[in-house]
Each structure stands twice: as structure tokens, then as C-alpha cells.
Amino acid sequence: MKTKSLIIILGVVGAILLIPFIAMQFTSEVDWSLSDFVIMGVLLIGTGLLIELATRKIKTNSKRLIVLGGILLVFFLIWAELAVGIFGSPFAGS
After folding, report:
1. CA–CA separation, 3 vs 82, rounded Å?
2. Using CA of residue 19, residue 42, residue 84, residue 78, what is the dihedral sign?
3. Domain residue spans of the chain
4. pLDDT per position in the chain (94 positions), as tens?
5. What does DSSP assign to residue 93?
């Protein structure tokens, strides 16, 4: 993997994680702990690296689109489960 793309992924993840961090300074409705930031950071970095890998390895656009859609679908399902527990699994803490 090129260093430039890794730096871009880490920068985007950092910028996304700054949103709840800044919101915590202004409102009590956003209440993230350190573990929330770590888990979301790992999830975002993992998704970014998988997307980078898929775009490099898969040559045809139709296959690439299907794989990227699957990666994003899994990301959003995990995110929703962690946020509100849509499936009620122990994974979400219920």
C-alpha cells in the first residue's frame, strides 16, 4: 500500500472522529467514552483499508461496485448495531 493513501485514510478517519469530539464540548447529548472513539476508529480504518484494497485488486468496475457496496453495507450494519442495537445482539451491549 502506498504511504500517501494510508495518510489520506488516517486523515479522513481523524476528521470524522473530530466531529463527535467537538460536539462533546458544546452539548451533553453527545457522550462518547475513550472506548467509543477507539472502536469507531478501528471500524473506520478497517473500512478504509478494505476499500483501498478492493479498488486496487479488482479490475472490472461492476465487480468493484458490488464489493464496495458490500463493504459499505457491512460497515453501516455494524455502525447501526453499535449505535442503537437494531438486532439486539450482545455485540451492541444488550
Report:
1. 31
2. positive
3. 3-92
4. 578 999 999 999 999 999 999 999 999 999 999 999 999 999 999 999 999 999 999 999 999 999 999 999 999 999 998 888 787 777 766 5
5. T
